[in-house]
Amino acid sequence: MLYIKPSDLPNSGKGLFTKAPIKRGKDVIEYKGEIIPWSECLEREEKGKGGYFMYVSSKYCIDARPTKEHMARYANDAKGFTKKEGVKNNSFYEMRGKRVFIVARKNIPEGSEILVGYGKEYWDTMKVQLKKNRKVSNLAKPSKKRTA
Fold first, then answer.
1. What is the distance in angstroms between the CA of the first residue and the CA of the last residue of the chain?
2. Do the beta carbons of residue 27 and residue 75 sit within 8 Å?
3. pTM of the full predicted structure?
């Protein structure tokens, strides 16, 4: 059984936790959502409706944003922007055709947060997006002009 509560990682929003121990190699949960072509994924991202995309192939992705009931979207990455000393990912993503599962990398004790690596490419993309957002934010600020 899994449940959602605030993440143990600072500034990470909600997290996915287990009510029972999970053995190494066992499926934790399937990453579910709407399977869409990449063109649709990119359109949604442009409209600011991204954030929960899971790469499946060069043709498809899973969009979990409109499906809050699918809890896998709440699994955080311990190697993200906000780290907690001594905390490491305890799971990994495994693709099986058009389906994606979170699998336990090691035995996960009851009450633990499920932490899964998003991958270097994801975090590199996030850094680029943050830089773009900062640039846009700075352009939107009114300039401070002195009047004599």
1. 67
2. no
3. 0.79
